[in-house]
Input
Amino acid sequence: MGGAGVGVGVLPGEELHAARESAASTAPARRTVMAPPGEVCVRAPPGLMLVSLRGRVKDGGRRAKRMVSVQPSVSTRAAKPLTLSEATRERNAWIETGLEAAVANLQVLRRQFGPGVEIIAVVKANAYGHGVAGIAPALQAAGADRFAVAWLEEALALRELGITRPIIVLSHTYPGDAVRAVEHDITLTVHSMELGCALSAAAAAAGKTAMVHVKVDTGLHRFGVPPEEAVALAESLRSLPGIAVEGLSTHMANADEADDEFSGIQAERFAAVAERLPWVRFRHTANSATAMRRGGLRYEGVRLGLSLHGVLPPNTPGPALTPVLSLKARLARVADVAPGEGVSYGLTWRAGRRSRVGLVPVGYADGWKRSLSNRGTVLVGGQRVPVVGRVAMDHFLADVTEVPGAAEGTEVTLIGEQGNERIAADEIAAAAETISWDVLASLGTRLPRLFHRNGIVEGIA
Output
């Protein structure tokens, strides 16, 4: 995609329409648009003007997401803003991603760490489930210095979204992918001379310089090179034509544990390597927890993932942040259950009185953990109601007996605010006996992400 992309929903053979907000240029340009069926976005992400898009698409199946190639033309027709309530009126379940909240968090964290520390926005795993198609362009427009992802494919997707800032791949990359990495100016974390040589050859062929980082395995024992080998690897990579060893990194094993003493040991191991490589100018060791708990480990950059999305890691004091994501649904059915009757698979919950249960169209296929069976609450009518019975692949049930107005179509908040109540990701994590990273990153692709600012939808993915 050129730029951040505009989500326009179409059915096969229909014309695509979206109004341009400014007619600064009349030159048509080729554009690729990702469009879930039946969805229309009438405002573009920051920095991207809307155009009148006209085209026809082949039938790829009504349920499948499609890549639609269209030819833009200029139109000065005003776009009617699409509100969240309008965009979700007939949806079973969806995610609301607040772009203004993400930008506000970036600004808060920028002030927290000061101007001398670069913000590396970690947007792996679909921006921790929030929807990278909206999050990444918004953070770039707001001044994020760099981006980081786990895999090369994620980095290439960012380039397709119009991300021009440096992108670091934090995990393993095969030598066979060196050409693609160099072609798209992706910074790889290099763990071997085999990969380094492949990058060198690709850079020479392309007439480019490949930027690389060396990761020191200081104790997590997951990825990287041991401290005793890191200096030699960095020096050897430096000698290769077309290679620039820009960065040195490590990752802490227990940064968010109450007792993070081992982080100090890892810090000493990393510092010993960094001292022998004074020519490496960009060092980064800190994730959100480390950046807030151990200021001395911020170095030239901090890798912020969870905190940018408005969630603090456990045992981590920090500034007030705004949660970016809400998970919502509408009751698909409300039914009476007689005393003694059970619900859902295994009949693990039985009504102790005449009850009313609401069917929530979200299940473990959407990332709502099966371990939440008979655990936790959701919000209906501004109040907490208990989850009852087993969570199934596509649904679970909630006891709405105390919510007289609950009916088919009533909104349910699974994560987020409703009325005076709020359910946070870490509350869900505690009930599911997992962590907030897992809760958020597991949210599935069946759930459309609605990117909005102050209630106005800017994109759907």
User: Anything to note?
Assistant: The CA atoms of residues 148 and 168 lie 5 Å apart.
